Amino acid sequence: xxxxxxxxxxxxxxxxxxxxxxxxxxxxxxxxxxxxxxxxxxxxxxxxxxxxxxxxxxxxxxxxxxxxxxxxxxxxxxxxxxxxxxxxxxxxxxxxxxxxxxxxxxxxxxxxxxxxxxxxxxxxxxxxxxxxxxxxxxxxxxxxxxxxxxxxxxxxxxxxxxxxxxxxxxxxxxxxxxxxxxxxxxxxxxxxxxxxxxxxxxxxxxxxxxxxxxxxxxxxxxxxxxxxxxxxxxxxxxxxxxxxxxxxxxxxxxxxxxxxxxxxxxxxxxxxxxxxxxxxxxxxxxxxxxxxxxxxxxxxxxxxxxxxxxxxxxxxxxxxxxxxxxxxxxxxxxxxxxxxxxxxxxxxxxxxxxxxxxxxxxxxxxxxxxxxxxxxxxxxxxxxxxxxxxxxxxxxxxxxxxxxxxxxxxxxxxxxxxxxxxxxxxxxxxxxxxxxxxxxxxxxxxxxxxxxxxxxxxxxxxxxxx
Length: 466
Fold this sequence. Notes:
With 466 residues, this protein is mostly helical. The protein is built from 28 helices and no strands. The longest helix has 14 residues, at 30-43. It is elongated, with a radius of gyration of 32 Å. The relative contact order is 0.03.
């Protein structure tokens, strides 16, 4: 059995290290060498592990187990050909050694040949007495191939072998989640809990599945059972807080988040959620206090900086909002959410040149939300750059081709560019898609209200628009 790296090194480790220091040669059994090698590899001390393999093979040149450990290290260091040659030799001596196929699967996996790795693991299964680890490895290969159905079945096998294997249980639920089969996950977890009624992990996962289906009372019950099973389970308190928030029970939610802080070191996420609750309760000073604690605890948490910025933005304190979003941009200038909020603040301050630049950064960094295109178009319109505004909206329509609001806005811009044909064409499309939004046109472009064809186009929809 491999030695636990957290345990105090036993006499074999001390003896081995004494040998390295003195250049004396001590004899060890092959099994002792295996334990020594595992000890160093588990600690991440690969160089010492390799040294132990070298000396071990000098003393036991025919040990298959030591050679397999040598293969493991070679594969770790991407020396696949050398590892393959040793595996060929071992297979000639013992074609029924499952570890040979597992290591071949490891090589194929690292070469991104995941189906080949699965095939090797299937071979290993035929000769395995204990297939637990093999199913776990196979499940991971199926995850690499995005085959969540087969991955789920493999991890279910692992849970059947060992119901305390929470890593596999998490993976089963992850597969259900990815397949959006929340009902299946709920059924599976309830069956599991019939056999393991005090499993805090299963109750916690069940609560998350209920939450995903907006079944909030059921989610609360599940999280309560998780807490009954382990009253120091931080995740259950945190998730319960999120449910209570959704139900508008903000004071109770705060209690849950504060419990997580009392049980362990405070986290930025807990501070953030407490701040959000206080803001919903109208406790603005407390909200602000917790938002500041959020970014103090984790200066790289974008949601924290955005929360402070949004707080000042909602209170129309645009200068402070700008100061904090700029702090965020200085930390992570590649975050499109920061640039978008920066643009919206400059827009509110009527600094349209800076807003134009910030919207450009937003889009360049991959934010293509509908209101990004709309607001950028409005900024360019305020700058009098109607042609650029048209191009921006045309880009937006590539992502949202049936969005009436963009079409109404584009129609008005074409009018400003004196392109009546294009204006009528886009107005017609917008009216077909959503006549109820027609009032937006005159709200954006009141100067065109007296144009006859505009009056004629919008007249039948006035009643619907009001």
